[in-house]
Amino acid sequence: MSGTRKTCRKANHPTISSKKKVEVENRKDGKCVTTREEVIQFGIKYLEGIGSSYICQVCISHGGSCCLDCRHLKYGKGCQQRNISCTAWLCGFLKFIFYEAGLLQEWNQFWDQIPGQDFRKDHTPPVFVIQTWLEVPNVQLLSQAFAQDLTDLVKKNDNPYYISELNNEIDWYVTRSFSYHDPEVLRVVRKKLKKITRDFRHFQSAKER
Predict the structure, then answer these.
(1) Which pTM was predicted?
(2) Which of 16, 37, 145, 167 lies at a 20 to 30 A Cα distance from 190?
């Protein structure tokens, strides 16, 4: 289910102006000239394309929030100042879906190209170059199935902090299963992650299709 990395020389990104496309074609190193705003819009479209909204609807309606206490968040209106760092960031649930679909490494590698990331803000220049874009993978069914599992699990748990606690726990283990290298440590971490997510039956079924 891994997505596809596009070399910039072959990419025809829809929001690059004609002037910038010429500049891309003329670069001998094959890199793309892009803008901060274009990368943010790309990230948003990618997340929309993989079905992140299915997860967010369940999570937010049950007390979860990626943006809790952020000064750029307005009640009833949402985010008032998009930035690179928040666009690139994944919650534990999305990180798990990316990990299981084989997308996490290329997602991280894409954002590693983008300079200036910070906590809930960025210092990214308005124009810069990158090596590759990503194609949006077809994994919406996975996100829908995961959201259904979340909905079912919330109904079985009276804990008002269940969603947040589960998200944090999954995030902890996915991060370590992706970054650790010791075989024994990886075995233990992945076993624990499998145990935590054993009740995500719709998701597992969708993954096997």
Answers:
(1) 0.85
(2) 145
